Amino acid sequence: MYCSGEMQGIFCSDLRKSSGIGQNLMTRVALLCAPALLLLSAFAAPIGQPQSLNPPILNSESQYRLHQILRDAHDEVKKHYFDPKFHGIDWEARFREADARVAQAHTMGDGFTIVAALLGELKDSHTYFTPPERSSRSDLGYRLGLLGDACFVTQVRPKTDAAEKVHVGDQVVHLDGYDVNRADLEDVNYFFRLLAPPAAVQLDLRSPSGEVRRVVVRAAVQEGKSRLDLTQGTDINDLIRRDEDEDYASRSRMVEIGDAVIWRMSNFDEDYGPIDRGMNIVRKHKMLILDLRGNPGGSTQTLAWMVGSMFDHDVKIADRVGRNEKKPMIARRYGSTFTGKLIVLIDGGSASAAELFARTIQIEHRGIVIGDQSAGAVMEARWYGDSEGADTRIFYGFSVTDADLIMTDGKSLEKTGVTPDELMLPTAEDLAAGRDPVLSRAAALAGVQLDPVAAGRLFPFEWMQL
Predict the structure, then answer these.
(1) 222 near 137, Cβ under 8 Å?
(2) Is the pTM of this model over 0.85?
(3) CA separation (Å) from 253 to 147, 201, 238, 340, 385?
């Protein structure tokens, strides 16, 4: 049972929070069963193309496609959503209202927003729309993260327009007029990075010194093919290489320092092999610092392996409350137990399985959790792939929550998150200087000397190619 975009796989992660928003390799390889031509961008204007001030209404063909995508969204939720009452929402009425709005859509981006808004009515972190992948790939050249309730620039891509205008440590007050804070960042990222990537954005920034400025940042764009022929080697090999690059950039990394090991676990999508090799290293040490900051979650199986490695007995993580049943989620004892000291790091980017792991460690009094309040995006869902077209097909999909997860303390982490045992945040000045005082503090608790500057250099950020 796998997650994060694999077709029909069980998962508890949120693609909107992941750095690589596109579908993963398993999804793409599944497309080989489809007709030869895959249309990646049948209707959206190329990223960076100027838009008319008064664009025409979509033609009938494009409207038909949107109606079909919207109908698929309606059907997948109706068939699979864990709450058959849809939290009291009249699902049929909301669908009809959304379907009527398609006639006013000027662009497919408008249409995708209508589909996303329908699913957003459920206010569920794990129910959302993944639109057809665009032929052009774009990057605004920066990454955002939370410090408490505020949003800051955490990375800037070299040799981009952003590199000349945006700096690590800048607080983002507004993005194209939208507030950017803990309550809004997920939706802002989802809209600007997945639904409707813009040619440029306007940012209102506050520097660490308090200076406020407004900048316009142009996206870097890599043009691609609008159609891929999956019967030929070049196109499918390009897709495979792209996914390999994404996997490499999001890989887990370890550093051994004396009696301690620091494990930067970027997601919970690891197979048995990497988890087993990692735990073989961990068991040689007396202390483990498990860094789950920015970890968007992943596979329930990976979660079970990780929890099972920390205890000498089976541990109940949560109850899965689905449409027709309530079933316990149990982590079986896994291999030789790590009995040393455990410190877990989380932040506002830690979601889903990462949150379940951290909270289980707290409830079972197995270790200490340090950092910032986690994302509060904790449900279990399946990803359903759909398509539209005949010889040329357009692929898209929906994540639909099929179970709520109730922890053993009787509470859900959805919309609340994990409160760390020790609340500790970097400052804007720390970001700008490349310091990591949180990891430094964890190292001190583990009996290791690691100053904040050295801690900030342990796991350098790596940009994927466009």
Answers:
(1) yes
(2) yes
(3) 23, 33, 26, 20, 31
